[in-house]
Design brief:
CATH class of the largest domain: Mainly Beta
Strand content: 35-45%
Radius of gyration: 17 Å
Shape: elongated
Number of domains: 2
Number of helices: 3
Number of strands: 10
Order of helices and strands: EEEEHEHEEEHEE
Helix content: 10-25%
Structural class: mainly beta
């Protein structure tokens, strides 16, 4: 967890789950203002508690990008269980945001759930299209329900 001393303007941070990088613009007692490294994203205001839990200093973060450097990459990969547990749900891909690597699926029960390409194989994600019938497992994450192990069902 980031300490209060680490949070000062100009510090580079990385979101642990998405790997997105930001620069701290300003911080107060309750919130932190972040500017994204990517120009296609907008500035972000994050509650201090959430910021301290979900962000790390960029120089302390080893994102797995095919160039794994020692234990940092491996431990992050091993943090999630290999196979999500829970009942399988059927639904359809409602929306894909290919350039950002995520999408939303609407289950047969009408509930929409977020999914990220990290929750399935790269080739599986690339083969998905809006409207495809899929099967997935719903997992509860820090931000709510999330679809894991999303797989297209052929012939439906």
């Amino acid at each position: 967890m980031l300490s209060i001393e680490d949070i000062e303007p100009g510090v580079q941070v990385t979101h642990k789950n998405t790997g997105l990088r930001y620069k701290v613009v300003d911080s107060g007692d309750d919130e932190v203002l972040l500017s994204p490294e990517s120009s296609d994203l907008t500035d972000l205001v994050v509650p201090m508690k959430l910021f301290r839990e979900e962000f790390v200093l960029t120089d302390r973060y080893n994102a797995p990008r095919g160039r794994g450097r020692g234990r940092g990459s491996r431990s992050r990969r091993n943090a999630a269980p290999a196979t999500p547990s829970g009942p399988k749900v059927k639904g359809r891909i409602k929306k894909l945001v290919r350039d950002r690597g995520f999408g939303f699926v609407r289950g047969d029960d009408g509930k929409e759930v977020f999914f990220h390409r990290s929750g399935l194989g790269a080739t599986d994600y690339d083969s998905l299209s809006e409207g495809d019938v899929v099967e997935y497992v719903v997992q509860e994450g820090p931000r709510g329900a999330r679809a894991e192990n999303v797989r297209a069902i052929i012939g439906e």
